[in-house]
Amino acid sequence: MRTIGLTGCYDDKGFLWTENKVPGHAVYGEKLRKAMGREYRNWNPHRSKLAALVRKDPTTPWFGPKDDVLYLGAASGTTVSHVSDIVSGSVFAVEFSPRSVRDLLWNIEPRQNVVPILEDAGAPERYAAYIAQPVNVLVQDIAQRHQVEIFLRNLPFLRPGGLGILVVKARSINVSQPPAAIYDEVARKLTAAGLVIERKVDLHPFELDHMAFVVRKAA
To answer: Which of 16, 111, 118 shows the shortest CA–CA distance to 75?
Structure first.
């Protein structure tokens, strides 16, 4: 087991792992293994777009070990659970679907640093009371037509100089427009909002027509 240079991420024989914050507990049937007296969970890039980002660009700007994270589009908690492994700060996990939140609650129940929030990420004023201070990292994985606008509405929660990771699903924005044109328009909107784009990472072959935009908020 060796570190790949990103906080909390490890490689072993070509597979990606995070150190399990709840030893003996698998969240979604992932493989567990022990090495050097610690337990690790396999992080599958075909099931997590953040893992795909790490595999495609292992030098991408990344979380700090003590960061607080706002995660939009938490679903049932597959990726959120690995973020929980990576950081010691709070992970605010926002999800709109009651059924997904039910699964999220079950999956993250032993994890003390995850705060599940049943709300619409497009209406951040509804959950502002849960977030006492600006977070270090804002992550969004929401396959909706207005996914960029949702990300921008949540920027006030991100501290100056903070990191943003926006996963864009081109086909959810426009099925008839070429993905490259959609990504250009996304880049324009992010730049117009005062964000610095540090990386644009195509997630193929793990995800089709998905681009991860890694941005930085002005200090």
So the answer is: 118
